[in-house]
Amino acid sequence: MKPLFEQQSTSSPQIQPAVALPSSPTRLATAGQFIAVIIIWSLTPLAAVWTVQKLHWAWGLFLRFSIAIPIALLCLKFFRLKLIFSQKAVLSYCAGAIGLFGSMAFCYMGADKVPSAIISIIYGASPLVSGLVSSFVLGHERFSSWQWLGLGIALVGMSFTLGLSSSGFQLNSIGIMLELIAMLFYVLSTFAVKSVGAHIHPIIQMTGSSLVSWVGYVCLLPFFWSHLPTELPSLKISLAVFYSAVFSSVLAMIFYYQLIKVLQPTTVLLITIITPVLATFWGTWFNHEQLSSHLVLGLTLLCLGLLMYSRRSA
C-alpha cells in the first residue's frame, strides 16, 4: 500500500534511484515486473485488512517489519550494497520512514473500518495530491487544461467511491479520515526524501527507512502491551503478515525502482490507475466486500481522471 509516494514518475517515499541495479532487464522481464507490482500492490490493502482482524495494528506492523528487515538486508548483500550512515543518509532514512511508519500506522488503524478497495482507491489518488502540492506549494509545475479536467473528474469519482453522493452506501467516517491521513503522510514522505537529496541507492533507502520505522514500532509497543498476541494467529492472518513483509515491503519496491528507471512516467502511473480496479476485485472476491453501483461509477471516473491527469503539457 502504501505505500504511494511523487510527480507522476514517483509514488513511493523511498525513491532516489542514483545507482542502477546490477542488470538491465529485457522487455519480457520489465513486463513481468510491471504486472507483479500491480498484482502485489492490489493485494496489499486486503492483506492489511486481514492482518488487523485478529492482531492489533501496532503488533501487526511490528511483525511485518520484523520479517521484512532481514529480507531487505539479504537483498543488500545480494546486490553488494551497504547501509550508509552519513548525516544526510540518516535524514533520508527518517524522511522515508514518514511513509513507512506514519503512513502505515494510520493505514492499519483504519484498515478494520473500511473495505480494502477503499484503501487502494485513496492511495491511488496520491498522484493528484502530489501534483497539487508540487504546483501550489512548491511552484514546480503548472497544470494544463487537460490535467485540470482530469483532476476534476477524479475528484468527482472519489466522492462517489467514498459514498459522499449516496445515503445508501455509507462508510465509516473515522476509517476514511485515517486512510486520508495515511495517504497524506505517504505524499509528504516523497517530498521529504526528495528535499533531503541524499541520492543513495533505492534498496539502501528502503532498508534504512524500514529500520527506522521498525524502531518506531518498537517504541509504540509498550503503549499497546495489553494487546500482545497470546496465541498464534490463524493461517490467513499469518499469510497476510508474511505477504505484506516479503512481497509488499521488499519485492514490489525493488521491481518498482527498476521500472521507474526504464519506463516513461506516464507508463508507470498506469500502476496507480490499474491497482484500485484489481483491489476492488480482490476485496469483492476474497473478502465479500460490498460492490455498489456508486463504487463502480466512482472508480471508473477516478481512473479516467488519473489517465487524463497523466498527460503532460507539451
From TrEMBL:
UniProt keyword annotation of DNA repair present: no
Any one cellular-component term (Gene Ontology): membrane
Membrane topology: Multi-pass membrane protein
Keyword field: Membrane, Transmembrane, Transmembrane helix
EamA domain span: 34-161, 174-310
Transmembrane segments: 34-52, 58-79, 91-111, 117-139, 146-165, 171-191, 203-225, 237-256, 268-285, 291-309
InterPro entries membership: AA-Vitamin_Transporters, EamA_dom, EmrE-like
Principal place of residence: membrane
UniProt-listed Pfam families: EamA
Organism of origin: Acinetobacter seifertii
Name of the featured protein: DMT family transporter
Cellular localization per UniProt: Membrane
